[in-house]
Amino acid sequence: MTPYLTERIRLVDKALGRYLPSARTRPATIHEAMRYSVFAGGKRLRPILCLASAEACGGEVEPALPAAAAVECIHTYSLIHDDLPCMDDDDLRRGMPTSHVKYGEGIAVLAGDALLTIAFEILAGAKSTSRYDIGAFISELAVASGSRHLIGGQVLDLEGEGSEVSLNATQLRYIHESKTAALLTASTRLGGMSANVTPARLAALTTYGKSLGLAFQIIDDILDVTQTSEKLGKSAGKDEATAKSTYPALFGLEKSRQEAARLTRKAHEALKPFGKKGTRLHELADHLLDRDY
Ligand code: GRG
After folding, report:
1. How many structural domains comprise the chain?
2. Tens of pLDDT along 27-64?
3. Distance 157 CA to ligand 1 centre (A)
4. Considering the entire predicted model, what is its pTM?
5. Residues at CB less than 6 angstroms from ligand 1
6. What is the domain extent for residue 215?
7. Which residue has the CA at smallest separation from atom 10 of ligand 1?
8. Number of the ligand 1 atom closest to the C-alpha atom of 81
9. Does an H or E element contain 247, and which?
10. Residue in 16, 220, 225 to alter for ligand 1 test, most ligand atoms within 8 A of Cβ
């Protein structure tokens, strides 16, 4: 972990700590469960990308914090729901027992719902800029999290699971774009929007986020095959056990690594308009490609 990432995680966690109701707020169980999953760990990749994107656009970190916290709340909600017995049925997440194992299914569903909802409450506290009003911020996050992207990708994933017929590369890419890349892209775009980014640079952040998001999911699928549950903090080997179509399953590990590297190069290229200000985004792209958890 680099000093930059450690400092950013601390900053994001402090903001999340402020935005989320205290664990003693009534009814305490739900607030405890929300905090349990949010603070169970996690790389904070999406909020860090959001903050780095704001800085790449010449903005400050402070105005980007509501968006950074909001994307992490959406992400954590999706993990809680994805782990439920009716979905991926997992008992380990971020190195800890999953929400439903700790609190029961009912509270886990509600903790996910509450994090989804509070994400928009937090984002509504962001400041409009001359190009982007609060409606634009809210719409950005709602579309990325909704039935055409995050939830839509999960639907296709669920339908494909255990199916005799494996998906083709186009279908797989579509799932990755929806389930993973959409929220990553929204994170970079929201960071830019908080810094009043120009339309041309917003398009560049979109290309960066999409390429990075696809590379991130391919690496995630590779790590599922090559790493232990202990290292990942979540159950490894799950994709093979559930006969999931993944890049490594379709193309093998080496070709998958090459594709992740190609997409990362594409992400780097997209950052040209930002010059030196894009340094952190370049570093993050490399870090994600090289990660081992
Ligand atoms: C709406 C229920 C629902 C699900 C949406 C996001 C999602 C679909 C499911 C979660 C599981 C999954 C495999 C998502 C793909 C994205 C991904 C690799 C998530 C893990 O993200 P990390 O590695 O996690 O950033 P940490 O714990 O570090 O934050």
Report:
1. 1
2. 999 999 999 999 999 999 999 999 999 999 999 999 99
3. 12
4. 0.96
5. 42-43, 45, 75, 78-79, 81-82, 87, 94, 150-151, 153-154, 179-180, 217, 220
6. 2-290
7. 79
8. 2
9. helix 247-251
10. 220
